[in-house]
Amino acid sequence: MPSTCADDLDLLKTAGAAGAVLALAYFRRDQKVWTKDGGSPVSEADIAVDRRLAEILRAARPDYGWLSEETTDSPQRLDRTRVFVVDPIDGTRGFIAGCNEWTISLAVVAGGRPIAAVLMVPAASISFWAVAGGGAYRNGERLEVGVDKDLASPRFASPRRYVSAFEKETGTAVRHRVVPSLAYRIALVAANEIDVAIAKPNARDWDLAAADLLVQEAGARLADLSGQALRYNGTETAHPTLIATTPALFGRVADMVRDVDGQGHAEGPGNQDGENGRRSGEPRTATASPGLWRGT
Question: Are 130 and 194 found together in one domain?
């Protein structure tokens, strides 16, 4: 009998809990760190957690495809009805630096969309989960975004240039939160702790799939600038500029992003990007700023 979405969710929870225990065993301890081809780091913990998740998930669902940031991709996943989409540690820079806001992201994708998702924030004892049509939850509490159109003091998690543009356009001070994990930034929209999260181009399926289902089930949306929902498990796993916010705010934020990007603004240090690329090079030390609110 085929597994139900609820069955898959239970399996993701089991795997996520095991991954969290393993990741915490490495957290704030000396470990090897390598540099990927794109310049972002990967740690011993990334590899160990990836292997543990694969052991649990692929053994339980051998007919499912597999797409993970830390596993060499295979075209075999393209022919599978359901696919695990996994990031063993999203926010590796924050993890290495000792920041609490890194995540373990797990999703099952079917027909190009996530149908079950778990996002663990182990160092903060937080777990999110969602199933298609069944709502989104954080530590057992159902999530539902607000519907207000006016932002008296908006909360952004995005590259700094968008914050500056919004402040200039509206004359409104923005609270800017820096979060190492892209998946967590998006999930915070579902949790009503962030009003707008913006991802620069090249975020990957594994950064997004679990958080996408969370915002969808909480009543928000994650989409490209045209408002098109994301499709997963394609030949290409990278995505363009993305916005996570409420439906009421989406159009206004998309117009602002188009204006800013059309002016060719450069991004300085401390930008908020997904951590993509492949491993290469020798061990090195990486640093990152912890998540925090920055007054403007």
Answer: no
